[in-house]
Design a protein that fits this description.
The chain is of the alpha/beta class. Helices cover 28% and strands 21% of the residues.
Length: 511
C-alpha cells in the first residue's frame, strides 16, 4: 500500500503544479476570510475528499505554508502576499508611505533580446499588480532582465510542466531565482487597502456610483470615521474621479434630491454624464440622477416608435424624454423640481431637441389633469383605422407613483372610439413584499379601481436594498377607467316664458 503512494520529489512538484488550480479554487470557496491563512495541509485535506486518500510524502511538507514567503514577510504565520502591513490598521488619515512592504517573489533571468517573446508565452504566470513592472533590470548583469512571476502560480518556487516546456523551446535555463520586491501603496487595490485599514470583521465598501467625475458612496455607520480616507483612496485608484461624496440623508423631500458630504477632492458637483450615447449635464447636489437606471431608460425608449407620443410625468433632466425625442416621438416632459426643469431645458438644447419637447414645471397630478388630458382629448377623435398613434405615459417616481394612478379614473369624457389606441402606462414602484410583482399589481389595481389580471406585465428593474425591489408595471388604461360616459338624456321640463313689462302692467290692473 505504501508503494502506491510513494512519490519522488520531482513527482511531488509536478503533482503540486497540477493541483495548483484546484487548490486555489478550494481556497476561494472554503476560506473566504478577511485574511486567509490557508496552509498546504488544509488544502490537501480538501483535495483528499475527492481523491479518497492523503499521499504520504506530503507529511514532510506540513511544516510549511502552501504559499510560504521567506523571512522578509512580516507575519511568519503566512500573511497574504497582497495584504498591506498590519500597522495601517485603524488609520483615519491616509499615509501612503505606511503601505510599503517587501516580499520575496520568484523571477526568471532572461536575455533582454528575448524577454518580449517569453512575456507573451508566460502572460498568465507573471505577477499582475496595479502599477507594477513585470520586467525589471538585473542588478548583476545589464544584458539580462528579470521576469517577475506570481508566487501563487509557482508553487515552492518550482516551475510547472507547461512553463518548463516554454523555456525549453526558447532555450532558457529553467532556474527560478528569488527577488526582493518592494510593494507600495500604488501596488495595492482599493479593496485591499480598505480591508487592511478598517477594523477586522467589518464590511468593506469599495463600490460606488460614478456620475461623471463624481463618485457617490452610501457609507454605513461603522465606516464613517474612515470616510475621508475612503474618499481619497477612491480618487487615487479610479482615474477620472476628482470628487467623492457620501449621501447623508434619504430621498424623502419633494424634489427627489438628498443631502451629501464631499469626502475628498474638489467640491464641484456640476458634472457631465453620457448614457446610451446621449450626453447630459446636471448639478448632482440639486437633481436626481441614478446611473444604474440606464438599462431601464433604454428598455422603455426601445418600445417607442417614431410618431408615438410620450408623456413623462416625472421627467428629471430628461433620460426618457430626450432619447424619445431623438427617435422622432412627440414628447411632453414635466418635473416639479425647478432645478430639474431648468437642466431639462438645458439638456434639450445640448442635444438639439429643444423644439421637439414641450417641457412643464408642474405637480405630476396637475400635469396629468391638464396637458395630458388636453392632448388626449384632442388626439383621440382624430384616430382612424389607417392612422393610429400610440401614447405612452412614464411615471418614474417609485416612492409615490402608484398613488397618482387614480387620476386616470374618468380622465376623459365621452364614448371610447373603437379606432383609438388606449394609452400605455409604465409606472414604477418599490416593493418589500415576498412577491413584489403581485404586490405592485394589487396596489395599482387599488388606485385604478379595477382588476388588471391578464392586462398588465411587471418587470424587475433592480434590487435597491436587501428585500427591496424596484419594479415597473406596464398596462393599457382600461376604457371603463379612462372614460366617463355622459348620463342618458332625460326629459326636459317645459321652458318658462320670460315675463315682459306688459305682463307686469296687466298684473297691476287686475289687483
Amino acid at each position: 500500500m505504501a508503494e502506491r503512494v510513494t512519490l519522488t520529489q520531482e513527482q511531488t512538484r509536478g503533482t503540486l503544479w497540477r493541483f495548483g488550480y484546484s487548490a486555489r479554487l478550494l481556497k476561494t470557496n472554503h476560506f473566504r476570510t478577511a485574511a486567509s491563512n490557508t496552509s498546504f495541509p488544509a488544502v490537501w485535506m480538501l483535495l483528499a475528499q475527492y481523491s479518497g486518500r492523503i499521499p504520504g510524502p506530503f507529511v514532510v511538507i506540513q511544516r510549511n505554508s502552501f504559499f510560504t514567503m521567506p523571512e522578509t514577510v512580516e507575519d511568519k504565520g503566512n500573511l497574504e502576499l497582497y495584504s498591506p502591513p498590519p500597522k495601517v490598521r485603524g488609520m483615519t488619515e491616509l499615509n501612503r508611505e505606511a503601505f510599503k512592504r517587501t516580499v520575496v517573489v520568484p523571477v526568471l533571468k532572461v536575455k533582454k533580446e528575448i524577454i518580449s517573446t517569453l512575456l507573451k508565452s508566460l502572460k498568465h504566470t507573471v505577477l499582475q499588480r496595479p502599477g507594477l513592472k513585470r520586467v525589471v533590470e538585473d542588478p548583476e548583469d545589464e544584458n539580462n532582465r528579470l521576469l517577475i512571476l506570481d508566487p501563487h502560480k509557482i508553487a515552492e518556487f518550482s516551475l510547472g510542466e507547461s512553463e518548463q516546456e516554454v523555456l525549453k523551446q526558447l532555450n532558457i535555463p529553467p532556474e527560478v531565482c528569488k527577488y526582493d520586491l518592494e510593494l507600495t501603496y500604488d501596488n495595492f487595490k482599493s479593496e485591499e487597502i480598505l480591508r487592511a485599514v478598517l477594523p477586522e470583521g467589518q464590511d468593506v465598501t469599495s463600490g460606488f456610483s460614478r456620475v461623471g467625475h463624481i463618485a457617490h458612496l452610501n457609507l454605513r455607520d461603522h465606516q464613517l470615521p474612515y470616510r475621508h480616507l475612503i474618499g481619497q483612496v477612491i480618487i487615487d485608484k479610479n482615474p477620472g474621479v476628482t470628487c467623492v461624496v457620501n449621501k447623508t440623508s434619504i430621498i424623502d423631500n419633494t424634489y427627489r434630491n438628498f443631502q451629501m458630504e464631499v469626502l475628498a477632492g474638489e467640491s464641484n458637483l456640476v458634472t457631465k454624464v453620457k448614457e446610451n450615447n446621449i450626453a447630459y449635464e446636471l448639478d448632482f447636489s440639486k437633481v436626481y440622477w441614478n446611473p444604474r437606471l440606464s438599462t431601464e431608460h433604454g428598455r422603455i425608449v426601445e418600445l417607442l416608435k417614431p410618431g408615438d407620443v410620450l408623456f413623462d410625468v416625472f421627467a428629471g433632466i430628461g433620460p426618457f424624454a430626450i432619447p424619445a425625442a431623438k427617435k422622432k416621438c412627440r414628447v411632453f416632459a414635466n418635473d416639479l423640481n425647478p432645478e430639474s426643469y431648468n437642466w431639462l431645458l438645458h439638456n434639450c438644447k445640448l442635444n438639439k431637441v429643444y423644439n421637439k419637447i414641450k417641457a412643464f414645471n408642474m405637480d405630476g397630478r396637475d400635469f396629468l389633469l391638464g396637458p395630458v388630458r388636453e392632448e388626449l382629448s384632442k388626439e383621440f377623435p382624430l384616430q382612424t383605422k389607417e392612422q393610429k398613434t400610440s401614447f405612452h405615459i412614464v411615471m418614474n417616481l417609485p416612492a409615490l407613483a402608484l398613488e397618482f394612478l387614480d387620476v386616470f379614473r374618468h380622465l376623459l369624457v365621452g364614448e371610447p372610439r373603437s379606432t383609438a389606441v388606449l394609452p400605455t402606462v409604465h409606472c414604477y414602484a418599490f416593493s418589500k413584499h415576498d412577491d413584489p410583482a403581485k404586490d405592485i399589481q394589487e396596489r395599482a389595481e387599488a388606485s385604478l379601481g379595477t382588476s388588471l389580471d391578464g392586462r398588465c406585465s411587471t418587470y424587475l428593474v433592480r434590487n435597491v436594498a436587501p428585500n427591496k425591489e424596484m419594479m415597473c408595471i406596464s398596462f393599457q388604461i382600461p376604457a371603463d377607467v379612462l372614460y366617463k360616459r355622459p348620463c342618458p338624456a332625460e326629459e326636459k321640463p317645459a321652458s318658462k316664458r320670460l315675463r315682459t313689462s306688459k305682463d307686469f302692467s296687466e298684473e297691476k290692473l287686475l289687483s
